[in-house]
Each structure stands twice: as structure tokens, then as C-alpha cells.
Amino acid sequence: MTRIVFFDIDGTLRLDGAFPDTAQQAIRLLKENNITPVIATGRCEHEVKAWREELDIEWALTCNGAHIGQNGRTMPGSIAFDPDVIDRWLRIADGRHTFLLYGAERMYATRLDCPHLAQARQEIGGFDDPYPAKAGDSLPPIYQVIVFCDETAERLYSEGHPEPLYVHRWREWAIDINPHDVNKAAGVLKLLDLLDIPVAESAAFGDGKNDMEMITAVGTGIAMGNSCPELLACAPHTTLRIEEHGILHGVKHLILGHPLPDEKTTTGSPR
């Protein structure tokens, strides 16, 4: 029996800047069956607030699992960076690379006219103008950073730490960095512990490389049909593509156990 389901947003719940009606229907179906839906995303709490409220979802794991929020409130188990690490990075990056800093309630950027920042906003959307930030500023807890840099420069920020950081490259020119031992799976396990729900009674949907740990950690891990090859290779289950109403299909047939309408249909079955 599944009691909680975690959903990535981009490429999973959200398509072309909107939530398909069938995805919203799937969330309602879960709630009607006393199953808790949870957002699990690399975005920050500030970015997903309006979407969480639109979907009437209480819980969100943001910043790739570093921040646990209940109706926007920071909950126990959230993990922020050491402020000294952030300050050191900003001093290294000064004049070379732009940082986007994710707090719970605000986003900050070291350069507002960065072409890569503009490109990210155009490609993924969903966030307002960040507040300016620089080395030496007093900042709130920062749970994730995006560094706009190529693979060669990545080592300036990812190496030289007592414990390895979680680094996820999502464009040739951009990486997410999270504190040590933080990824979506870590956030999932902390929330399951907080809500006293066994891992076997959890499920998750995703489509990207940063969903791999989560999909393999839950009781029922489901990859969207449009997922990256790496996730499709490791996911225990698959559903249809997002544009083929894959969320509703997966919720009905893999979570709620409804029979497939056509016995010849195999997509969405365990692999």
C-alpha cells in the first residue's frame, strides 16, 4: 500500500509552463485515496510556492532535497551550507562566474545581467528577479547554489571540501551544488522519518538525472517515458511520456492498481 508519492516538477508534473489537467486530476485522485502528494524538485521553495498552492500540496522537498517545507515553513532536517563556504565561493567567482543562491524565501544572484542567468530563466522559467548578492553580504541560510560555469571551472567550487558535495550538471554551462550527502533521496528519507511512513509505502515520479537516487530509494520508483536514458536504465517502473498523460497513467495503474484498459498495453508495467 502506498501512502505518499513524490513528484519532480519539470518534465514530470509540468509541461510547457503549465500543469496538464490530467496531472492535476492525478493529484486529486491520490488525495481522495488518503495518499499524500509531495513536490520533490531542484527548484527552491520560493519558486514552487504558487505551484504548490495551485495543486493544493502541503509538502515540498526543494533544492534537490536540502530544504523540507510544510506549507512554505522550513522543517527539521533541512540542511544549509556553511556560510563561510558560500562567502569563499563568491570571492573566488568574483568577475568570473555567476552564482544563483537558493534561500527558502528568496533567491540571490551575484550578477543580474549574466547571459546564462537570462537563458536559464527563458528555458526553465518560474522565478522572479533575484536579489543582488556579493561576497561579504549577510545572507539567510542557503540550501543550494547554481553556478554558471563550464566543466573545466567546476572544480573551483566542487573540490577541496572535507566531504564531497552533491553536484548535478544540468546544462553544459550550469551546475547545481548541494551540501554533502544531500540529494532528493536524502530528503525523501528524512520526510518519511518525520511522517513515520515506511520506505516500502512510498513512491516517486521523475525524469532527470537528479531523480535517480530518489527513484531507486522509494518503494515504487517510476520514470516518465520522456526520462533521460540514465534514469530509464535504473528505474524499476516506467509510465507514459508527460505529453501522453504519464502522471495520471502511472497513478492509476502503478499506485492505485487500476487494471490497464487494454491488456495489450505494456507501457507503464514493471520492467
Which key features would you list for this structure?
globular, alpha/beta, disordered C terminus, 9 helices, eight-stranded mixed beta sheet, 14 strands, Hypothetical Protein, Haloacid Dehalogenase-like Hydrolase, Chain: A, domain 2, 271 residues, 2 domains, Rossmann fold, six-stranded mixed beta sheet, 32% helix
Shape verdict:
globular
Helix content: 25-40%
Number of β-strand runs:
14
What profile does the largest beta sheet have?
A: 8 strands, mixed
Write down the CATH topology of the largest domain: Rossmann fold
Q: Based on the structure, what is the oligomeric state of the protein chains? A: single chain
What is the C-alpha radius of gyration, as a whole number of Å? 18 Å
SSE-based structural type:
alpha/beta
Instruction: Provide the residue-averaged pLDDT.
Output: 93
- Total helix count? 9
> What strand order characterises the main sheet?
5-4-3-2-1-12-13-14
Instruction: Please report the distance between the alpha carbons of the first and last residues.
Output: 20 Å
CATH superfamily of the largest domain: HAD superfamily/HAD-like
- Do you know the CATH architecture of the largest domain? 3-Layer(aba) Sandwich
Count structural domains.
Answer: 2
Strand content: 15-25%
What is the CATH class of the largest domain? Answer: Alpha Beta
Order of helices and strands: EHEHEEEHEEHEEHEEHEHEHEH
Low-confidence stretches: 263-271
GO molecular function: hydrolase activity
Protein name: HAD family hydrolase
Keywords: Hydrolase
Pfam family, one: Hydrolase_3
